[in-house]
Write a structure and sequence with these properties.
By secondary structure, this protein is α+β, with helices and mostly antiparallel strands. The protein has four helices and eleven strands; from the N terminus they run αββββαββββαβββα. β6 and β7 form a beta hairpin. The two termini are 27 Å apart.
Length: 218
């Protein structure tokens, strides 16, 4: 484990209204271009291994910030039998299909299909830059404020569990660790956040890190 900085100040404990104002001011108002040359990705911590630059498939995720007091972030645990990313912690999301109107529409559709999150409870507040993964995807994250009162039903074919993590925990840089694993013949580094028994890593942790930087770094 390699904590980035245990001395960093904790993230301010925002309420829903303050978060929405900050998000609308700091996030992208429109879907980003997929070919942004400076977009973040898994390869940022592995500069000597080269960037994943070609043949990427377009995906979208919803980053659901639940308007509780205090705020939480809704995450899922994928089932163990899926062909890719089995058992990992993820945001609701998936491939952008040709019939989707855009990345937000795809993220909302996937959230409905995976966990039955009703769009009536969702207020989109902006986008993050597309995130490149080492497994061949470029993901557009749509950030949204979610009003409490929703009822969720996980699709057993895709989602093993749905849970919430405090927003302040995920937005505290002291909890952003750098771990490594041997993959495809090389040692690769990645962001990770351990919350109790939950191990959040890879693209999900990378997107959380991107959200932190967009909202709270000058």
């Amino acid at each position: 484990m390699n904590p980035l900085s245990a001395s960093n100040m904790a993230t301010p404990d925002l309420d829903a209204a303050s978060f929405e104002r900050l998000a609308r001011a700091r996030l992208l108002a429109n879907p980003p271009l997929l070919n942004e040359p400076q977009s973040p990705g898994d390869d940022d911590l592995n500069p000597t291994l080269g960037r994943f630059a070609s043949g990427l498939r377009h995906a979208a995720v919803l980053v659901p910030v639940v308007a509780r007091s205090p705020l939480t972030v809704l995450l899922t645990a994928r089932t163990d039998h899926l062909p890719s990313h089995a058992g990992q912690i993820a945001f609701p999301g998936g491939k952008v299909e040709t019939y989707d109107a855009g990345p937000l529409a795809a993220a909302l559709r996937e959230a409905r299909e995976e966990i039955a999150l009703d769009e009536a409870f969702i207020e989109p507040v902006g986008y993050l830059s597309p995130y490149r993964t080492g497994t061949g995807y470029i993901i557009t994250p749509s950030v949204a404020l979610v009003r409490p009162g929703f009822k969720l039903t996980a699709d057993p074919g895709e989602v093993a569990d749905v849970f919430e993590v405090p927003f302040t925990f995920l937005m505290n840089e002291a909890n952003h660790e750098i771990h490594s694993r041997h993959w495809k013949g090389a040692e690769r580094r990645f962001y990770a956040m351990s919350y109790g028994e939950r191990y959040i890593w890879g693209a999900t942790a990378g997107i959380i890190r991107t959200l932190y930087r967009r909202l709270f770094e000058a």
